[in-house]
Amino acid sequence: MSFANPASASLRHRPLSRRNFLQIGSLGLGGLTLPNLLRAESTAGVRSSQKSVILIYLVGGPPHQDMFDLKPDAPKEIAGPWKPIQTNVTGIQICEAFPRLAQLMDKMVIVRSLVGNQADHDAIQVYNGFDPRKPKPSGGWPQFGSAVAKLQGPVDPSVPPFISLCYTCTHGPYNEPGPGYLGASYSPFRPMGPAQKDMMLNGVTVSQLADRKNLLRSFDSIRREVDTNGMLRGMDTFNEQAFGLLTSSKLAEAMDLSREPDKIVKRYGTGNPKIHMDENGAPRVPQSLLMARRLIEAGARVVTLNYSKWDWHGGANNSIFKREAEDFPVFDQCVSALVEDLHNRGLDKDCTVIVMGEFGRTPKISDQVGRDHWPQVNCALMFGGGMTTGQVIGATDKQAGMATARPVTFGELFATLYHNLGIDPMQTTITDLNGRPQFLVADQAAPMRELIG
């Protein structure tokens, strides 16, 4: 990969100074310099265990009644054309377009009764579990990965604890939020898209970086001695770590899919990251799921990614069912590959995966042959994390319009994710900008008892 950083070109053509020294180690990570990020992670502390989470956002709100909560006995203007098929768990049926997932149902959990969704597009609830319509602390709620980075820090100094593989969407509400009141030091490391420059200095090879590192070690020793406040001496440690991150083969290798066996890459499938679905959604890139698995194995604690666009209101030559016929088989292939991969590689006890969108879709098919926004109920798919799988949680009415059994909140979902990472969501707090302790999940929700035993 080639990653741009204009600062590097100018630095190569002038003598090194203290300011330049710090600039070389100051690649932007969500507005933060890399040395500062390392300092913040050092303050947070490092834990020895590596539980992990992959959060997959289905941009725009997936149609729950066409995927995991089919109602074949409903009138045709509600049921649609898809038929349910039996899974490998007796009594659980899902869409016929997901034959691979159907044979892995014993390794998954379907939540059919997710309530408390907002009515408009807003990815923030998917990333932190808090309703954006309700009051929030100054600075806003941090997204889940930022909170985990704050609480647990990195597993490996050369691999950031929170990595985002999310593509930037032109429709703003589809994009993941920032770190909220935690500040820029807990922004995700973003190696995709315009933030690729975070990974490497433009036009400078690893060997050249090593030479530059030696130069930095030896330059201007007089200024070091006269730095009476010790600031430069203190910064040296973090710049040393910054260079370690930039030149680390571990992170670069994790992102190099050519190191993966061809049969595994084909199993997931590939898509074009430059084609944003319906122009303003995320690209349909199955290999992002494989990349997420590789980054988890390299030491990341949380990896987020956005996948395709599911906001299907219909329209001329673009009915919801046409789009589903395009997206469903690709989704079936890549998600089932990730389920199998976690089990084949012994990650199924430690890595939790959750797949969801911001709301469900209307039971009634519109005149445009689409389904519109439906905040009353939503669905989620979960697997891994040592959870009790092979089950459906919750139920909806005959039209998949309202939860009729075991309504599940976003707070409960995120409490479960924290629990699976070894964080107690009912006791742990993080101090906000006003010095007030804030709990991690909405309403101090408890982890889902059906999943954790």
Descriptive notes:
With 453 residues, the chain is α/β, with parallel strands linked by helices. It folds into two domains: 1-30 and 200-247, no CATH class; 51-198 and 255-452, Alkaline Phosphatase, subunit A (3-Layer(aba) Sandwich), CATH 3.40.720. Helix content is 33%, strand content 14%. The protein has helices spanning 6-11, 18-24, 34-44, 64-67, 76-79, 99-102, 124-128, 144-152, 206-218, 221-226, 231-247, 249-254, 262-268, 287-298, 320-344, 410-420, 449-452; strands spanning 28-29, 32-33, 52-58, 84-86, 93-95, 108-114, 162-164, 302-307, 351-356, 360-361, 373-374, 378-384, 391-393, 395-396, 403-405, 429-431, 437-439. The strands form six sheets. It has a seven-stranded mixed β-sheet with strand order 7-8-3-9-12-6-13, sandwiched between helices. Strands 1-2 form a two-stranded antiparallel ribbon. Strands 4-5 form a two-stranded antiparallel sheet. Strand 16 and strand 17 form a beta hairpin. Helix 3 packs across helix 11 (231-247), helix 9 (206-218) packs antiparallel against helix 11 and helix 14 (287-298) runs parallel beside helix 15 (320-344). It is globular and about 55 Å long. The relative contact order is 0.20. The model is unreliable at 1-32, 44-48, 198-204, 217-226 and 228-238 (pLDDT under 50).
CATH architectural group of the largest domain = 3-Layer(aba) Sandwich
Mind telling me the CATH class of the largest domain? Alpha Beta
Please give the largest β-sheet.
7 strands, mixed
Termini Cα gap: 44 Å
Class derived from helix and strand content = alpha/beta
The count of DSSP E runs of length 2 or more, i.e. the number of strands, is 17
Tell me the radius of gyration: 23 Å
Count of discrete domains: 2
The percentage helix is: 25-40%
Low-confidence stretches: 1-32, 44-48, 198-204, 217-226, 228-238
The helix count comes to: 17
User: Which strand-content bin applies to the residues?
Assistant: 5-15%
Name the shape in a single word: globular
Q: Residue-averaged pLDDT, rounded?
A: 85
Biggest sheet strand order reads: 7-8-3-9-12-6-13
Protein name: DUF1501 domain-containing protein
InterPro entries: Alkaline_phosphatase_core_sf (IPR017850), DUF1501 (IPR010869), TAT_signal (IPR006311)
